[in-house]
Amino acid sequence: MAPGAISLPPSANGTDGTNGTKEIINGTNLPTKTQNGLPIPAGLDASKLIITKSPSPRAVPDAASAFATEDTICTDHMITCAWDRTRGWSAPELKPFGPFSLMPTASVLHYATECFEGLKVYRGFDGRLRLFRPDCNTRRFLRSAARVSLPAFDPDELEKLLVALVAFDGPKWLPRDEPGAFLYLRPALIGTQSTLGVCTPTKALLFVTLSYMKKMDSPGGLKLCTSPEDTVRAWAGGFGHAKLGANYGPSLVAAQAARDKGYDQILWLYGPEGYCTEAGASNFMVVWTDKESGKTQIVTAPLDDSIILDGITRRSLLQLARDRLGDEVEVVEKKYTMNEVIEAQREGRLRETFAVGTAYFVTPVSVVHHRGIDIHIDIGDGYGGKYALLFTQWLKDIMYGGEDHPWGLVVPEEA
Amino acid sequence: MAPGAISLPPSANGTDGTNGTKEIINGTNLPTKTQNGLPIPAGLDASKLIITKSPSPRAVPDAASAFATEDTICTDHMITCAWDRTRGWSAPELKPFGPFSLMPTASVLHYATECFEGLKVYRGFDGRLRLFRPDCNTRRFLRSAARVSLPAFDPDELEKLLVALVAFDGPKWLPRDEPGAFLYLRPALIGTQSTLGVCTPTKALLFVTLSYMKKMDSPGGLKLCTSPEDTVRAWAGGFGHAKLGANYGPSLVAAQAARDKGYDQILWLYGPEGYCTEAGASNFMVVWTDKESGKTQIVTAPLDDSIILDGITRRSLLQLARDRLGDEVEVVEKKYTMNEVIEAQREGRLRETFAVGTAYFVTPVSVVHHRGIDIHIDIGDGYGGKYALLFTQWLKDIMYGGEDHPWGLVVPEEA
């Protein structure tokens, strides 16, 4: 299914303009509209949010203890919302962060009926909290859910829930006196139906956590190793474009093998031609002087064969390049091979390469190892070349309030 | 990684012949051997099984209520065993069936760090309980775990745990006076580490449930629909050969589309040539008269490109054909295309097609729909042609004690 080809099935989209009255009974919203005498499952509805404050809020860790153990530290609260095929979405809950109870037969534990999103919350230098283009995340999340047969939802309602959680826990966990800090929002959707048997889940759980995440765009540059010839991350007709759990677990063996050889991440190649696709779980870009035209080009893999993720940092960076760099740089989304990258480097035309994504932000790549050869790329003082630095600055300005921009969504906080 | 290329890392294989003394403290086994002063993680050890009998055993459902709801009914007990990278495998527990507690940040819920197995327990016509080649399942499970970066274990120890659960719950849930009945054993292994971040899990949980499963080898024959041209289940260099959750969730969209068109399952084709690979989540076989040699052949997809599952029913059926059918039938594991199947049918050379696997057993296929054409295949009285019936009978004899055979492992029960 093409990434854009999603329509909300009526059974999961009761929050359209025709929505009737709703009531909350025992924490669940029962469908109140009927169609041919049958109840219509309720849509996701942020206005029904039920808030339960944690009775035992935790201390905010200092920088040293935030990553002292391997367990991710989450804030005091999370959001959960259950779905079943008959009743639709229950009333969302904002409640104390804590474990789930899942039956051993739950769909997600056997059949990987799961997808997720990831975005950061930024404490701006102007003191305000911001999300970066959350509408892009919620819409991609909806496409991912459809690709793995999980229920649809109104992405605008999910965005309201993200904002609600950030507004609730943000002031304590991202204090105003620490501008430049960020936390990580993780919406996830899992199939919870307790049936052993390969079938579309009739029950699901949406949840959102807010947690610490290490800063990964550190100086020094990433060292990449191209994927082994016998290992393919994603393929045309598969699901590499969707943020499914199924894309990640099976990639760990190759990633570990790369780390064992001293590299940070895999540069995933595709097909006998060796097309460059993704760097680890991030998009990958090169800046080179085009052989034919002599123009400076920013080149990255295209979205049309659904192999790579439609990254929001990727999309934003390309948009900024088109809007702000004018004729200086040509933005090219096309298939390009590792051999073309090597040729550009040998001919002195390769100017920069970087990984872009929520985790790595814009991180320059200093080395790509391919079939026995190390290709070295200049990364200036460690933070990348001219364009990596430019994109980093432009994006940070939007994220941290240096520039007032529609991509930076301010989250209201109580005074 | 090739299916056979697994070696047990020392960190997860403490149950070799050199194993020293062990002790049980608070339900976990602490490593007692040291190497260079560091403890060696403990291996999976069935002899440490801790048994906790259910205080509230449930009634065995009758045939009508066993499948009255969509939730899978499990027996009174399950087996669980936790692993972490430092301590290795804890003492396995046989305990009341019930929900797990998992953190919202658990690896399995985000990154599909999960794999499973499935095998049946048969109540024989001689009154005895049997497993069918469980050593094949436990070894394949180990290969699947390695493919998704989950910990290794001694497969013989897992087999002992399967036998322990069946011996414990079998007498009540598969009563002696119901020969021919079966239950379904589901070992599963999930990554439980509570870290948001794509990394190899340092904690995992192995669990085994025993449950009801519908009889799926019903008369009438399966109707298959070939996979859409833009959807590929598994690919060379991927993980189609491993029993990972990641193979199943992403297949649900196409499977539902096939059902919406009136077919039971997808016949998954591969590549522009349209090679036949799997039927739903089962292996697929055709019996035809070879165009060149005029010989009767049983043809099925090969294992060497790791696209299809190394099915135990598949493997057993091919072995029986080789051992017992002699020159009558040639067993051929090779790539073959949908067009070759259509050609054989048009030329009157197509004799049988069937899906084989634990769920479908040996189920004849009556129709394959391909790009607008329905190909009809004779299935005799509904249970298949000569060979489907022969394999069914041979396998049933081994499973239900009609024939004393090394593939049928008798589970001891208290008198």
TrEMBL record, chains A, B:
The keyword Amino-acid biosynthesis applies. GO terms for molecular function: branched-chain-amino-acid transaminase activity. Pfam families: Aminotran_4 (PF01063). GO terms for cellular component: mitochondrion. One of its GO terms (biological process) is L-leucine biosynthetic process. It comes from the Eukaryota. InterPro entries: Aminotrans_IV, Aminotransferase-like, B_amino_transII, BCAT-like_C, BCAT-like_N, BCAT_family. Keywords: Amino-acid biosynthesis, Aminotransferase, Branched-chain amino acid biosynthesis, Pyridoxal phosphate, Transferase. Its cofactor is pyridoxal 5'-phosphate. The modification N6-(pyridoxal phosphate)lysine is found at K243. Residues 10-37 have a biased composition (Polar residues). Residues 1-38 are annotated as: Disordered. Belongs to the class-IV pyridoxal-phosphate-dependent aminotransferase family. This is Branched-chain amino acid aminotransferase. It comes from Coniella lustricola.
